[in-house]
Write a structure and sequence with these properties.
The structure is a single chain. This protein folds into two domains: about 150 residues, Ribosomal Protein L4, Chain: A (3-Layer(aba) Sandwich), CATH 3.40.1370.10; about 40 residues, no CATH class. The protein is built from seven helices and six strands. β1 and β2 form a beta hairpin. The radius of gyration is 27 Å and the shape is elongated.
């Protein structure tokens, strides 16, 4: 598949790039995408939730009423989960939600996500660009030159560019990442994928 290279003014240049068929022409694997996305979202969870159990409640240990003769159920402690202020039964505890996923599965998932974007014609190749100083207005103007500017856009750079990142930080519908930091969730979550020429070469090196 060939794509035309665009400049930051949204104009098509005379140059074209060839997408690697092993990556962008792959038959997508939905299960690999599911597993990689599940792992990514699981890793975003802090897992710091905690509730007190009966043994952790600070209260009197005195038996609150006699064992028999009250006509009601037995009760030995105000720490019981049956009473207000008592401990919780099987409450949440701090834990790590992450799980292991093979590298080849993650790689297949990223390839599949990129293949879906290629099938949907949602990939736009850009010339390498940067800004002399961080300026949100410049980034918004560039974004407005393309279609669906009100939808989510993911910009993939070959390496981190501080000025570009700072310029895009306040633009809600745009996210900037690098070829090394590209993940399945971000690819699928974006409506349009903007890839610079140098980052396209880097992606091909990483996933080939």
């Amino acid at each position: 598949m060939e794509l035309v290279v665009h400049n930051i003014n949204g104009e098509a240049t005379s140059r074209k790039v060839q997408l690697n068929e092993e990556i962008f022409g792959l038959k997508p694997n939905d299960h690999a995408i599911y597993l990689d996305t599940k792992q990514y979202l699981a890793n975003q969870r802090q897992g710091t939730h905690k509730s007190k159990e009966k043994s952790e409640i600070t209260a009197s240990t005195k038996k609150i009423k006699k064992q028999k003769g009250t006509g009601t159920a037995r009760a030995g402690s105000v720490k019981s989960p049956l009473f207000i202020g008592g401990g919780r039964v099987f409450g949440p505890k701090p834990r790590d939600y992450g799980f292991k996923l093979n590298k080849k599965v993650k790689q297949l998932a990223r390839k599949s996500a990129l293949a879906y974007k290629a099938i949907e014609n949602k990939i736009i190749v850009l010339e390498d660009f940067t800004y002399e100083t961080p300026k949100t207005k410049s980034f918004v103007e560039m974004l407005s030159k393309f279609k669906d500017t009100d939808r989510k856009a993911l910009f993939v750079l070959a390496q981190a560019d501080r000025n570009v990142v700072l310029s895009s930080r306040n633009v809600q519908q745009a996210k900037v990442t690098t070829a090394n930091g590209l993940n399945t969730y971000d690819i699928l979550n974006a409506n349009n994928l903007f890839i610079t020429e140098s980052s396209l070469l880097r992606i091909t090196e990483l996933l080939s």
